[in-house]
Amino acid sequence: MREWTLDIGGKEWAIKFVQPSRLPDDTEGMCYLHPKKIHVANNLAPERETLQIGHEIIHARLWDLDHAAVYELAEAINTAFWRSVNAK
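The structure assignment produced for this chain is given below.
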């Protein structure tokens, strides 16, 4: 299982890539506030994986932000990231 830690808002978070069956139905990732961990499905395409990681990081840092805003922000960041990567 791939995993690492990441500082988010001055706190150490565990990022783990897990079997989709370990996630709630119809989700590709999950942010848990206690303990501080993020699970991401381990079967995602690269563009989808970076989107999901970003989405869960936003939840971790801005936990009270409504889900529509989290999705919109994650989409914008992911689009900019992949445009930059593909422009090289």
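Interim note for the steering committee: The mean pLDDT is 97. The longest helix spans residues 67-86.
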